[in-house]
Amino acid sequence: GSAAGSAAAVEPSPSGAAAAASLAVALGLFAGLLVGPQMASAGGSQALPTFQLSYPPGLQGIDAANSAIEKGEIDFVTRSRIEALGFPQGVKEFKVDDARRRAAPSKAERGEKEQQRIDDYAKTAQILQ
């Protein structure tokens, strides 16, 4: 009987474990609120832009990060320059699309036309009956 009593004294109670867990959560929340939000930084101080036509000072030369070293590789500035070559064609295509969009009938006009087609079909269906 005494072995069972000593084993019960060693095992933590479920309510004690829950209290310890809630205390840990409360302390973590308090510490987080005390410190405040901070920006996470991994690596450099600023991320590289997705589009750039000139090399920043830190990315010049063969030893620069993200430089194209091997044959067939393209770095982000060269890729941006290649994309920029297509801008004039993109502007032309946009103007054509915009003109088509403006020339297209409005939603109200399309609705009226569809309603007229439905009415014409209804008249045809009545004649056939």
Verbal overview:
By secondary structure, the protein is mostly helical. The chain is built from five helices and no strands. It has helices spanning 2-10, 14-35, 76-85, 87-103, 107-128. 1% of the residues are buried. The mean pLDDT is 77.
* Element-level helix/strand string: HHHHH
* Residue fraction in strands: under 5%
> Uncertain runs with pLDDT below 50, 5 residues or more?
none
The separation of the N and C termini measures: 98 Å
Tell me the number of helical segments per DSSP (H or I, 4 or more residues long).
Answer: 5
- State the helicity in percent bands: 55-70%
Number of strands: 0
Mean pLDDT: 77
- Which structural category do the helix and sheet elements fall into? mainly alpha
Biggest β-sheet, characterized? none
Gyration radius, to the nearest Å? 35 Å
Quick one: overall form?
A: flat
Q: Can you give keywords for this protein?
A:
about 130 residues; about 60% helix
